[in-house]
Design brief:
It contains eight helices and 13 strands. Helix 1 crosses helix 2 and helix 7 crosses helix 8. The strands form three sheets. The protein has a seven-stranded mixed beta sheet, sandwiched between helices. A four-stranded mixed beta sheet has the order 8-11-13-12. A two-stranded antiparallel sheet has the order 9-10. The protein is an alpha+beta fold. About 30% of the residues lie in helices and about 35% in strands.
Length: about 280
Amino acid sequence: MVRIERLSSVEQLKECEAVQRSIWGSEPIPATLLRAIQDNGGLVLGAYDEQEKMVGMLVGFLGRREGKLIHYSHICGVLEEARYRDIGFQLKLAQREFALSQGLDLVLWTFDPLQGANAYFNLHKLGAVCRTYYRNYYGLMEDRLNAGLESDRFLAEWWIRSERVEASISGRRAASTLAELMSQGAKLVTKTRPLRSGMRAIISYGLDVEAPALLIEIPDNINALKEQSLEAAREWRRATREIFEHYFAKGYIATDLLSERAGATRRNYYLLERG
């Protein structure tokens, strides 16, 4: 069992600093700022395991977007040793309850659109949607997760009172398959080829595809691809940047991430739908 707690003591906030360093390998949000966020309408959460060790954390704060009060989720992370235990999911559910208690209906955050596991978590498991693309949002970053690529980001919109979100977080939202979607008229935008490593490189894409739903492939594991071929990873960034900016401008919204395995190969596809 994991316990989620709103952090209050100096010792807890210092421990939160250490967890951030372990996850990202960069300078953390300092305890002094965490205290200011916590005491002024924001949220700082810690996730504790059975041994009372903090294994995850989340920081969010009140914001305003186009005249509307929102909750902005700045960072959420889990130690590598504790991943795949739904700890991130529990942190986000606690964040949702907090935002609801403030009378809000929208939580926003950014994430790297080439990080497939994160995209699946955000779009499918939580029920967020994306229609905004930021180029090099944070500038060049040197932490272990982001070094080597420009920091392009999707803006995730989590409409926490919606039926879509209720269905997603309760597990009632069915997963579509690539074959099902294509049989219903969805069209592929990207063409890729396998590399010698088994990963894939993008070779072409279309900006004139017309369909109610579009499928855009991204790498199986962008971090591993960066280690093997930084140029291949950068080409994915350049190509998908153009694709997403183009189709978002035409009114498409990213609503899901399909992840399918064929033998030893995993293929990831964004689903974009109109409106």
